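User: Hey, quick favor. My workstation is busy. Could you predict this chain's structure for me?
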Amino acid sequence: MTITALVLAGSRRGEDDPVARFRGVTDKALAPVAGVPMLERVVNSLAMTPRIGRIVVSGTDQAAMMALPALAELMAAGRLTVMASTPSPAMSTAAAFDAYGSPLLVTTADHALLTVGMVEHMLDATPVWADASAGLASSAVIKAAFPHSKRTYLRFADGAWSGCNLFFLRSAAARSVVVYWQRLEAERKHPLRMLRLISPWLLIKQRLGMLTLRAALEGIGRKTATRLAAVEMPMAEAAVDVDKVEDLHLAEKLLNLHA
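Assistant: No problem, here it is.
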């Protein structure tokens, strides 16, 4: 099965990104990490993954992206396509899903530590029954590797997890998950509306420490008429995205250790 990969490389309008500012670039996706633009690192890992065929980059500065030799080479070979980014990640994902269908692997340009092994694990560990899956790393795995790193965790009765910016939209039914994501994104400035979309009961159970990860996925699955799965990523690096300057320093330290 050949899989299309989407790299979300856009920036929200009006945002002043700290990593872009620190590196002196106009677009965070182009910020160098250990000397290589992070977008190039992500695309290279996808290109080296045997099951990944077409790679689609959704970004704002298309001319600057195509000036990167590695990306230009892949485009000339017919493996890379660039799409104009939309105002939000969910809208960009919807546009790519409508254009290329499933299966679609989705990641982000700031996933500078992405490896072939991570991509392969995400694909292999997604259950055959799942319409869509999300990669998550447990707090235990992350804290063992990076005890001083500050991460945002989703807390459930059966553990705490950090997102890994890896999503696998495995079947055509996953389109409804993308639509649901768009609805949530559209209401992000209206907490009460978001509450109604997510389910007040699920949030109450989560606040009381009674909600398991499986129950949360089943709840969203009922709303989207899909079967959803979480893929546990055994490598802590999968949860490192370069959102802050501290993340940039951590990513460079890890890359230099393995150079």
